[in-house]
Amino acid sequence: MDIRAQVSMVFHLDKCIGCHTCSVACKNIWTDREGTEYQWWNNVETKPGTGYPTLWEDQEEYRGGWKLDGNELKLNLQSKMGTLGNIFYNRRLPTINDYYEPWTYDYDHLFTAPEGDDQPTARPVSLITGEFMEIESGPNWDDDLGGSPVYAANDPNLDGLTDEERAHLEEIQRVVFFYLPRICNHCINPSCVAACPAGALYKRGEDGIVLVSQDKCRAWRMCISGCPYKKVYYNWSSGKSEKCILCFPRLESGQPPACFHSCVGRIRYLGVLLYDADRIEEVAKSPDADLVETHRGIIQDPFDPDVIGSARASGVPEDMLTAARHSPVYKFVKQWRLALPLHPEFRTLPMLYYVPPMLPVLAKVRDGKYDVADSGGEGLTPLLTSLESARMPLRYLASLFSAGNEDVVTDVYRKLIAVRVYKRAESVGDVTLDEAREALTMGNLTAGEAEAIFRLTALPSVEERFVVPPLGRETAVEEQEGDTYTHKREAGFGTRRAPARRW
Amino acid sequence: MFDVVLFVAFPYFAVVTAVWVGIYRYRNDRFSYSSQSSQFLENRVLSWGSAPFHYAILLILGAHLLAFVIPGVWGSLISDPVRLNILEVTGLALAVTATFALGVLVYRRLTKPQVRAVTSPADWLLLFLLLAQVALGLWVSLFFRWGGDWYLFTAVPWMTSLVKLRPDIATVTTLPWVVKVHMLGGFLLIAVFPFTRLVHAVTVPIAYLWRPHQVVVWNRRPSRTK
Fold this sequence. Notes:
The complex is a heterodimer.
Chain A: E1 3-12, H1 21-30, E2 43-47, H2 59-62, E3 66-69, E4 72-75, H3 80-85, H4 96-99, E5 103-105, H5 108-112, E6 124-126, H6 163-170, E7 178-182, H7 191-195, E8 201-204, E9 210-212, H8 222-226, E10 232-235, E11 240-243, H9 248-251, H10 258-262, E12 268-276, H11 280-284, H12 291-298, E13 299-300, H13 305-313, H14 318-325, H15 328-335, E14 340-341, E15 352-355, E16 364-366, E17 369-371, H16 381-384, H17 394-401, H18 406-427, H19 433-443, H20 447-458, H21 462-465, E18 466-467, H22 473-481
Helix pairs in contact in A: 17-18, 18-19, 18-20
Chain B: H1 2-28, H2 46-69, H3 71-77, H4 81-111, H5 113-117, H6 121-143, H7 147-150, H8 155-163, H9 177-192, E1 216-217, H10 222-225
């Protein structure tokens, strides 16, 4: 057993309103420089939809993540020799057009235009070339276009659906979509790290944050293809790859990352997970259907004395262990089994988990009214069958969150429905407690668990959502070595020069 | 006297500059060591240029170095006319490939506005020097045949004498000017190497082959290190 601590995340999709405040908070802090304008380390995409960059989930094209070859775990992209062989031209590299060409507007023209018959306009100007351009796509280009045959229909997750199901999704009265906020998953088996020939990408041992060493990166570009989530970005100006750093400078001073802190829907939870690093390979090799379960299995119980002992032996500090015992992520992922990894079949073991969204039930407009009669009767029945009659096919959600295993997703929804019915019995009163108990049995939950899930979902304080000790390296050094002076240059960013091309 | 400047002073200057500035840059501005790939901005034309150029130039450079480092082996290798012919034809084909591919790369930088935007004056200089050097090499291989052979008795003794710090330029001063310019061009490229993106050539990530896939960096791990 080799226990490591990982700063992990849960996004509760039921609470996401798609406002993009997280994206803007991130952009204002980290990616407003030349070469990064197109980069959205945090983005929110509409599902069904093609996402950002376009069709990033299509690994036939991009070859991200890992694949099982017999009993061997291999990079989907290429072998190590293949990496060196393809270093001069990476066939699997997305280009700027798969994201969008960043632009600004010629605002000056509004002030300097000569007097004329027409209002002057501010034409778009490319932030790369400085020339006028036609905007062909941009950030969140398919925002809210859930049922669109132009955009959403190309979502690779729809491939497994029947023709009938697909037709339903495009029917205007049944159109359905939800938001999927994405940041770097800070995986415990990161394929970006494995793909980098220069060894520039690395995982921090203490907290599991995955970073790109700007001094070691040589623009070989393999990380961009290697990451199946396309969360490593190429700075075309500085010639370096960049990615979400989980706001580690903020974490080191005890603040949550900017996207977490700014989240309007309060959908984001940050907490410590303890995992057994010795089992990474074994878990990553699980068959598709078992991936979620084995992934849960690698996460260790922070109350187990053996785990605590092993964690201490590996040098996990006490405050991390304490945080792990109060981790909201542990509750959502392991204890309640509500939060699922995104595309576990990429086998990178992502450490960002999603509570899938409750979905609107299928209904029709009859005599000009929204009629849920089709959804199965009165009283408790429509509530309990809301899963079967949901507009979004379960298979779609299974494609996103459980490598196609519908049972895993069903279990999650049974629990979510149980919590809803239970609280409804309590506060609305149109459902009896007996009926609520039936729902709880279906969801395999106790009343106490349902109450706890409700509280952490709906009423958590900041301290309950973000439970991570300050990762202060200065103080960590002080605790461990007693001498801050000799290590004084080891904290912080490591460079005082702008990350820009100079030679 | 002028020949001494060109064939003795300049090569030493070039190599010292390359090493000195290269190390200085690596130690003081490691961030700047990058291949500055522009594939992200344009990859269709690049596919016709980048890989063919790199493979061709690496093979050609390898042959030049091999004959210089182990002239005896090289000499016995080409002693057979069939093998000499194969080498000559291969070299010519590679030179054509490299020249064509470089032409593609120049065309790309000239015509693609997004790539032009990330092209610095040093990039243009480097591209021009490389194109000139490769074109000269092609010229030499076309009009001064059997270079694989006479290289051993002209440039190799000269460069060996430079390495031994006992410069002897007798074998090169009488060569045709095209050959001389090609030789000096090589050292000119060495001289500009540390000032350009060419530095990426010395950071070939060979260690990747034996490195474990995952890289975990610990700030400090007292229980393990003690």
